[in-house]
Write a structure and sequence with these properties.
This protein has 333 residues and is mainly alpha-helical. It has one domain. It has helices spanning 2-25, 35-47, 54-86, 104-124, 127-144, 156-161, 164-177, 184-209, 213-218, 227-252, 260-274, 291-308, 313-318; strands spanning 180-181, 330-331. Strands 1-2 form a two-stranded antiparallel sheet. It is globular, with a radius of gyration of 22 Å. The relative contact order is 0.10.
Length: 333
């Protein structure tokens, strides 16, 4: 009887292990990146305060659910297509498909099911949300799928992956505000911030892997990248973010100028992390282990949201800037 129990427990453990492998493919620990959907919702409420109602909450939550599901679909696709090269990476070789702990056939079924579910939710919320969700998927396919695979093209990999930030913002924006688009300066600022984070990640990976032949098998773009060039790319992205964010601040919400030093300090600290040996910025899901970064990021987000909904009239007099009198600038269709 005891032996039978041990066999049953062992079989149960194996089944749960397989289930855990497929859950791991979906990377729920990466869902925190969808905080930018919440920021998109907050921006919509800023431009249209009357949207802050119970009736607007349900579509927003469905849009957030769609973003979570589609993010997981993209992660599963990423692991399917990257399994051969992940085996060349000292940390990623332990992923379920790279370590052959999961079946590629089942993983494909998982990815397709997640894509269908996420897109069904998004299109159920209207065309703007659905099209944004579809572009979110197309960007991931361009980044990962052979034949295009911008992931292997230096600089284009950063530019493509960085689209996720403004797209997530739009997924939070459209369920509340319909067909009107946010200011272009805001979208470009978010894209630039994404480029900064991605370039720091590439720098951390290059510093960890070096320029060995195995590194080029893992990621062909590293045949082009050098530490100097990536630092220049980080600087370029930082300047772009500063300029585009500055346009938005002066045009729509001058109070955010008080947030600028804290935001700049966050960028500097993140770059400092990226320059460390075995940097945690290579694996964003582990950023929560840096309690200082987590506390500072939370404080920055709270400060940003507080200033978005606070009026400080004397700032406009001090900087000789007229308060914004117009809302969203352009409309789809």
């Amino acid at each position: 009887m005891r032996n039978g129990t041990e066999v049953d427990n062992g079989g149960l453990a194996d089944r749960w292990g397989r289930v855990a492998a497929y859950v791991s493919l979906a990377r729920p620990d990466h869902w925190f990146k969808n905080v930018f959907v919440l920021v998109g919702g907050a921006m919509a409420v800023f431009f249209e305060p009357e949207l802050w109602t119970a009736s607007g909450l349900a579509p927003f939550l469905f849009a957030l659910a769609s973003a979570l599901v589609l993010s997981s679909a993209n992660y599963v696709l990423n692991e399917i297509l990257d399994a051969p090269t992940d085996r060349e990476h000292p940390m990623k070789r332990g992923r379920p498909l790279a370590a052959r702990r999961a079946s590629p056939r089942v993983a494909w079924i998982e990815a397709v099911a997640l894509y269908l579910l996420g897109l069904a939710i998004a299109f159920g919320l209207g065309r703007p949300v659905g099209v944004t969700a579809l572009v979110f998927c197309l960007a991931a396919w361009a980044y990962n799928v052979p034949g295009v695979r911008t992931k292997d093209v230096a600089y284009l990999d950063v530019a493509t992956e960085s689209l996720n930030l403004p797209l997530r913002l739009l997924l939070g924006w459209f369920p509340l505000i319909g067909t009107r688009l946010p200011p272009l300066s805001l979208l470009l600022a978010f894209w630039s911030a994404g480029a900064f984070f991605m370039a720091v990640k590439r720098l951390a990976e290059l510093r960890t892997l070096g320029r060995r032949r195995a590194t080029f098998r893992y990621r062909r773009s590293f045949e082009v990248y050098t530490e100097q060039e990536l630092i220049l790319a980080i600087t370029f992205a930082s300047f772009c973010f500063a300029f585009f964010a500055g346009v938005f601040i002066v045009r729509f919400k001058l109070e955010l100028i008080l947030f600028a030093p804290a935001c700049a300090a966050f960028f500097v600290y993140y770059l400092k992390l990226g320059l460390r040996d075995e940097s945690v910025t290579q694996t964003p899901e582990k950023l929560f282990r840096d309690r200082r970064l987590l506390a500072y990021a939370s404080a920055c987000l709270a400060c940003f949201l507080l200033l978005m909904f606070t009026e400080i009239p004397w700032l406009y007099e001090a900087f000789n800037v007229e308060p914004a009198r117009t809302g969203v600038l352009w409309r789809l269709g």
